[in-house]
Amino acid sequence: MKKTLALLAAVILTVAMLPGCGSKTTGEEDKTETTTTAASTASAADSSAPDTSSDSAAEIIETVDEGPLAAPVPVDVTVYDKHDINIKATEFRKNADVDNGPELGLDIENKTGKELTIYLEEASVDGWVMQVEPLIMTSEGATNFGGVFTVPAENDTNKYSIYVGDSLLQSYGLSEIQEVEFSMVIVVGDDFDHAIYTDKVSVKNPQYSGDAIPYDDSGDVAYDKDGIKIVLQGAGYDEEYFGPTVFLYAYNGTDKTIDLRISKSEVNGEEHAAYGDSTIAPGKHLGEAVPFDGLAGAAPIGTITMSFDIYEYDVNGEGKLIASTEPFTAEYEPLDVEVKALSKEELAKAKGSWSREGNFSDEDGNTLSIEFLTEAQHWTANEWYVSGNFADGSYWGGSAEITDKGLSVKKAETIKIDKEGTMSDGEPISAEVVEDGKDGVKVKFGDGKELKFTPGTPLVGDDLGWETDEEAESESKDEKKDEKKSESKDEKKAE
């Protein structure tokens, strides 16, 4: 089961590499020196930062809470009403089928004759950026289709809501909902080229008690300029999976949406990528526990160093880099936790003679990932794992043994994905991996096919037939020229 999950993770990783997830932008860099060292003794238990670990909406638990929203609170806010689509916020309520947590009920009327796929954008609750759940209540119970609403073309008997939940609210120091803000992206059928982007709406709870919403921005200030503030608020620890974390607070006091990206991070003097990139709407606050790559079961944070890139977006969605911070360092008293990760010496011994790892690709769009997984990451054993995808849309992955030539994958599971996104199991395959050149690898599969890979992520636009940023910009200019010509002709005709 865990190996199947690893293969699915490889699929998700490949999707995350698609253009748009890391688009190139240009703009003036505003570098500010903010490197300081601040000693404190924060912990996951006593830190004032939000505890952003929360129960999934799919986890059913019992509760007898009869506090706020003991009865539904009606509201009437139109989210969208055009093109045979009507979406309306109807009430704040508690969902008795999903831990009795609070949610915002929605009515979605679809008269297009096609299935709708609806994405939530820039969602916030009481001013905090939150990972709320688009929830669908069917006749069989609560479901969530990958964080989107899927609305049938006809005979729709489902109920829809934006689920918040008590545990998520409480992690931000909140006991009730004052306001939910969001916008939507609506795709009719499979026409992604003409997706509908709604305006942002605000839905306020008319029975909100009026208590002030807590926004704690204390801590080690990494950046504070032009209305944008970034603060490190202490160290935490995720014993279940990620290991050491750092609490991050940010505030966007500008009038434009920003993307906050962690460009570089070091934990206890070693560089590890951080999982903390976020989009923050104007006037909103961010609070999250940021984990790091490759630190499952590792020693808690003593010293943390982080650098940030800040991107700004205008009303047309055009982004530019507006600031890159200098590295900021903070020191914390290490938490008292059991360290399950292998030491450097133990890890080197477990890895054996093979040393080439990371992401690889070739000129035809095939990808390869070689990683060493450990028991600290909840893996079944300390071992090498090789996975990848073929350009035809099939994915594969399996445990590898070290041989005198390289890595040997005796049996790799395969998954195929068709054009509709449906997954199906394929036939198992085998593969032999050997070093190739200075830093590349060569893979020979059981059917005799042989591929050569070099380090780096794939999916470069001009290699796979997708538009590069330069091509897209050129095309946009051409379209604008054509529009002006057309407008000019129409004006002459009118004259």
Summary tags:
495 residues; mainly beta; Immunoglobulin-like; eight-stranded antiparallel beta barrel; 12% helix; 44% strand; disordered C terminus
Per-chain topology:
Blueprint (H helix, E strand, L loop, with lengths): L1 H15 L14 E2 L6 E2 L32 E10 L2 E11 L5 E10 L5 E10 L2 E2 L3 E6 L2 E3 L4 E4 L7 E5 L2 H6 L7 E10 L7 E2 L3 E4 L15 E6 L2 E11 L4 E10 L4 E11 L2 E2 L6 E3 L4 E7 L11 E11 L5 E7 L2 E5 L11 H8 L6 E4 L5 E7 L9 E7 L4 E9 L3 E12 L5 E3 L3 E8 L3 E6 L4 E6 L5 H4 L4 H26 L1
Parallel strand pairs: 1-23, 2-24
Antiparallel strand pairs: 3-4, 4-5, 5-11, 6-7, 6-10, 6-12, 8-9, 8-11, 12-13, 12-14, 15-16, 16-17, 17-21, 18-19, 18-20, 18-22, 22-23, 22-24, 25-26, 25-33, 26-27, 27-28, 28-29, 29-30, 29-31, 31-32, 32-33
